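Me: I'm a chemist; would you kindly supply a protein sequence with its structure tokens?

Assistant:
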Amino acid sequence: MYKKTISACYLGSFIMAVACNLSPLLYVTFMAEFGITFEQVGRLTLLNFFTQIITSLSFSKPTDRHGARPFVTLAHFMVFLGFLLLAFSRQLFSFNPYVGLMVATVIYSVGAGLFELLLNIIILNIPGDAKESATSLLHSFYAWGLIVTVVITTILIKVLGRANWPAIILIWSILPLFNFFNFMRVPFAPQVSEEKRTRLTQLVSSRYFILVILGIAVGGATEVSMSQWTSTFAESTLGLSKEVGDLVGLCLFALLLGTARAIFGAWKGKFPLLGAMTAGALLCVVCYLVAALSPSPMVSLAACVLCGLGSGLLWPGSVVNAANHFPLAGASLFALLAAGGNVGAAVGPWLIGVTADLAPTLVRVAPWLGHLTASEMALRSGMLVGTLFPSLMVFFLWRMKRANGR
């Protein structure tokens, strides 16, 4: 009965990946065409995450009151509208195209924030015992969407030329429009009634819930920090071009990220969730340390890519764990989870960048790294500090296991 609903959610997760990653692939083009700075394009990324956080928190109560359908369709429309404004920012905001880029970013980021809030709710409300596998597969489609966005956009830039970037955005805008009509038709499972719903005050006063929120924050930091810096690492240490760095670094990372989620989803709970997450977090600790301290650039790059396998379950696993522990929480639970994950995703890469700028010689403690250039040493120093994220995840998961009595 709900197969079409699940398929629409999977496509929605794919579209969310397009919404979050298409514009950053065009940052260099925006800088050349509009004369904007690195700080200004970085501001667009912060605006994206900040808007998603505010959106997730703002729409939790309306979702509980009116259901998910009106807001998940709104999410698709906002991504479609945001892409249109982005494509025509030069014409619509001729007085200052950067204002157009910011307005477009806010609008499609509202859609992305709604996706983050609603898709998990829709999947986890569907009756049945396969919630862990369905949620893991849902998040795997984000990874596939990231890969396809990078590959197809890179190809379109080569074929159409950078000057035709608005046409590339318009091509991508077809997807949210298609799924908008999809979600108008598919069935939705009934929600938890108001009188049975766990109150927000009960959630935030729960120690277990605090552990879950802290866990999803460092899990988001673990995943997004490595995904954002892997491409730069490939370029700076191996001398690869931007396009090749994206394809070799980012796409391989996303491939392993999606593979981990798809395998866990396909095996339908054959492994205990918290145990699988702990194993993944420990692998990430090793990957961050090897990326920072290996004398071989190729081994360090391989560790960056392999981190995708370890981090694959940290975000979706946190969502499923919270839903299992608080089954009657309603949309407020998923809003806080989305906010926690996005805070980690925003702060993690920033902290690595700050470390690279302010403490670029941390890895000098390893005498075998004396041959590195200043820029290579700086990025590795940031990754060394990044080891803190999966290490904290291991600690929080251990505390959750103790709280569960196992």
Remarks:
- The chain has two domains: 1-191, 196-406.
